[in-house]
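Subject: Protein entry, chain in single-letter code together with its fold tokens

Area: Proteins and the way their chains fold up in space.

Attached in line: The record itself begins immediately under this heading.
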Amino acid sequence: MLILALDTATDQGSLALVEGETLLLEYSLESATTYLSRLLPGVAAAIKAVGREPADLGAVAVGLGPGNFTGLRLGIATAKALAWSLSCPLVPVPTMEALAAQSPFQPHPIGVLLDAKRNEVFWSVYRCPADLPQVEAEPVRLPLAELARRLAPPLVLTGPGVEILAAFIQGQFGDGITLAPPESRYPRAATLARLAQSRLEAGLTASPQQLAPTYLRPAL
């Protein structure tokens, strides 16, 4: 099945086309300021680049959040419109789950960290002993000052918040806490597509009319 995946939950967005276990193409969307102008043209260019037609899509996957408020709205609105017009399944994938999935085969818990602004963070913990993550602590919004006591070793720390909040978290932990590689700290559309395949098999699809982003806080 040909799956189109869109991720616009953070400042580094992407889109991907995946068929089975093959990544056909993945595009970077550069920054949140370009999503409005680049997302739909990027989808059209990607489908053309792999020699397919929009009607060939078997499903559309999209990052559900939490994350960038405007980015989430644009990505989810685009995914809903495509799924509706093509009459194909719409598969939402939680952003923090996708980030955890980018640190597979880990013996230790994976803490996922995003900057929620206003001195707050989004935080969750997963286990990923194989290639699919299992939630251990559901995503929550926390005051930044609360984060330190959540950083209990052993722990792998990942997510855009690792970079954005580097000055704060430096010195907050010692042995037993490691940082995921920089290239895995932002969600990738290719990862969304991989998780979407499992969600499709489990029947975890959404109605285009009813799907809404996971914000965990009101818009700023």
Remarks:
- Strands lie at 2-7, 14-19, 22-28, 59-63, 90-93, 110-117, 120-127, 134-143, 155-158, 177-179.
- The longest helix spans residues 69-86.
